[in-house]
């Protein structure tokens, strides 16, 4: 798979969760990549986690956050 | 025609081209001939207690047909008595009153030694002093030159001693043989330096003769480390000049040195913060008259740019030089191959395949012609293909609009840190 295809697959996974109403709540980076945790304010939806491997996907999520997609605050998390 | 004159910390010169303290400024005969050729200033070969130099002093690194890509020397400071040099400085200054003569000085790190030489040298009418804290060989073993320059506190102390008696501007010449040159630069300024000059030569061994197993150069079969200079060191020098130019703790004029061979090099050093420049190796290679082409080239360039004075170049590129962490990660360039200019040598394909991201494909077009094509979505914009390409205009690096807002590494880390901070709090709750 080309590097772009790997990135595109990961980007679509991120974008799909965001479209479904999930918000990014934490990003933990380690030797294996970035573990991005998503939560939803909708009742009954469990949290999701993606392990992003590609540099472009790791850049993508932070670009979205920096551009204004608001992270979930402590209060929102527990409503 | 633009005004080429400069004023470096009070030292006035008809143009920014100075000879560096080195073999070309060893005598009045040489410096006067240099001024006749067009050089605006000269930093006299370092004065101090006269040394005894070895025979077999220089060596060069030739690379792929380029002679003197790098130059190495094990010559020390002047081997002539101070009074002889002073007499020639006086005569030269008398003959060329509008040219800058700067005396390079190196003595033991003792206050009385600095006071003595400063007073004697200034008495003959030099325009400024350059303290040689950079020479990496010979003198360093005796506690002078780079040995002094690698110790920031000693640089500051010696500069202070010089400033106690100096009446002319003091330039401190810095060694590159140190981890962070700005530390020493700041200490020079704390000591009262009016300007800094950089870089001096880099520790080097030009080579080893694989047949005799002797070092290059060698003195009767024995070698010693020397100082490296010439075109090969220019990127190192330019980087160090840039670091000093953007450091607010430095904040004094810079005399740029290191591999400068052409008027274009001069422009680069001035854009990156140098008020003037110094040249040695190019003169050792081609002679004093290379300055004629440098003057013409600089004049034409300034005219083309519509600049009235060369001083308008000083520091213009400094704001464009920052930390890696402040570069935009969303900026994207890709390689595009122009079939009209491509000679199908495949060097770009090999480079990309073996050393980069495997995104240049060897294809056959509809007419059956072999072509090279970049898969732009996989291209990381490393520039390697355009670097190795031997055909002008065959590969362009094209900026693409990614549509994403600029994002630096530092901004990214702030976002993640802020995000995780709020999440941690939530987790605790």
UniProtKB/TrEMBL annotation, chain A:
Top-level taxon of the source organism: Bacteria
Protein name as it appears in the record: Uncharacterized protein
Protein species of origin: Paenibacillus helianthi
UniProtKB/TrEMBL annotation, chain B:
Domain 4Fe-4S ferredoxin-type: from-to ranges: 333-365, 370-400
Database matches in Gene3D superfamilies: 3.30.70.20, Aldolase class I
Coiled-coil ranges per UniProt: none
Enzyme class: oxidoreductase
EC number: 1.3.1.1
Catalytic reaction list: 5,6-dihydrouracil + NAD(+) = uracil + NADH + H(+); 5,6-dihydrothymine + NAD(+) = thymine + NADH + H(+)
Database matches in CDD domains: DHPD_FMN
Keywords associated with the record: Iron, Iron-sulfur, Metal-binding, Oxidoreductase
Pfam assignment, any one: DHO_dh
Subunit structure: Heterotetramer of 2 PreA and 2 PreT subunits.
Role noted for this protein: Involved in pyrimidine base degradation. Catalyzes physiologically the reduction of uracil to 5,6-dihydrouracil (DHU) by using NADH as a specific cosubstrate. It also catalyzes the reverse reaction and the reduction of thymine to 5,6-dihydrothymine (DHT).
Record protein name field: dihydrouracil dehydrogenase (NAD(+))
Organism: Paenibacillus helianthi
């Amino acid at each position: 798979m080309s590097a772009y295809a790997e990135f595109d697959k990961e980007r679509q996974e991120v974008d799909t969760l965001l479209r479904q109403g999930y918000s990014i709540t934490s990003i933990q980076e380690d030797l294996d990549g970035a573990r991005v945790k998503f939560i939803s304010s909708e009742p009954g939806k469990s949290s999701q986690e993606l392990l992003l491997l590609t540099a472009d996907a790791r850049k993508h999520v932070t670009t979205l956050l920096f551009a204004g997609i608001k992270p979930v605050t402590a209060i929102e998390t527990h409503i | 025609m633009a005004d080429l004159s400069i004023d470096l910390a009070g030292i006035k010169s008809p143009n920014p081209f100075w000879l560096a303290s080195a073999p070309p400024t060893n005598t009045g005969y040489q410096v006067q001939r240099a001024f006749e050729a067009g050089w605006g200033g000269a930093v006299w070969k370092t004065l101090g207690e006269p040394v005894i130099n070895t025979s077999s002093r220089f060596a060069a690194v030739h690379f792929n047909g380029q002679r003197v890509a790098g130059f190495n020397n094990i010559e020390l400071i002047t081997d002539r008595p101070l009074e002889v040099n002073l007499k020639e400085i006086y005569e030269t200054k008398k003959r060329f009153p509008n040219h800058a003569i700067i005396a390079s000085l190196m003595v033991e790190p003792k206050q009385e030694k600095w006071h003595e030489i400063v007073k004697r040298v200034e008495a003959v009418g030099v325009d400024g002093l350059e303290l040689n804290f950079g020479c990496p060989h010979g003198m360093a073993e005796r506690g002078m030159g780079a040995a002094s320059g690698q110790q920031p506190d000693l640089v500051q102390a010696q500069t202070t001693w010089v400033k106690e008696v100096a009446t002319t501007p003091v330039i401190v010449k810095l060694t590159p043989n140190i981890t962070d040159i700005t530390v020493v630069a700041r200490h020079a300024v704390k000591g009262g330096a009016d300007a800094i000059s950089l870089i001096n030569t880099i520790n080097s061994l030009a080579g080893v003769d694989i047949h005799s197993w002797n070092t290059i150069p060698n003195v009767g079969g024995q070698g010693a480390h020397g100082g490296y200079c010439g075109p090969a060191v220019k990127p190192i020098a330019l980087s160090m000049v840039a670091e000093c130019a953007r450091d607010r703790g430095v904040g004094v004029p810079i005399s740029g040195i290191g591999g400068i061979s052409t008027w274009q090099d001069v422009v680069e050093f001035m854009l990156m913060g140098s008020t003037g420049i110094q040249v040695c190796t190019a003169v050792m290679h081609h002679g004093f008259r290379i300055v004629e082409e440098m003057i013409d080239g600089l004049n034409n360039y300034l005219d083309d740019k519509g600049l009235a004075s060369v001083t308008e170049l000083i520091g213009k590129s400094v704001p464009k030089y920052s930390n890696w962490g402040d570069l935009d990660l969303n900026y994207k360039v890709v390689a595009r191959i122009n079939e009209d200019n491509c000679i199908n040598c495949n060097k770009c394909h090999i480079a990309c395949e073996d050393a980069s991201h495997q995104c240049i494909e060897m294809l056959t077009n509809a007419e059956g012609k072999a072509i090279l094509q970049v898969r732009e979505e996989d291209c990381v914009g490393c520039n390697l293909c355009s670097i190795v390409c031997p055909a002008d205009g065959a590969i362009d690096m094209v900026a693409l609009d990614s549509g994403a807002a600029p994002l630096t590494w530092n901004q990214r880390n702030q976002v993640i840190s802020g995000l995780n901070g709020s999440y941690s709090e939530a987790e605790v709750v």
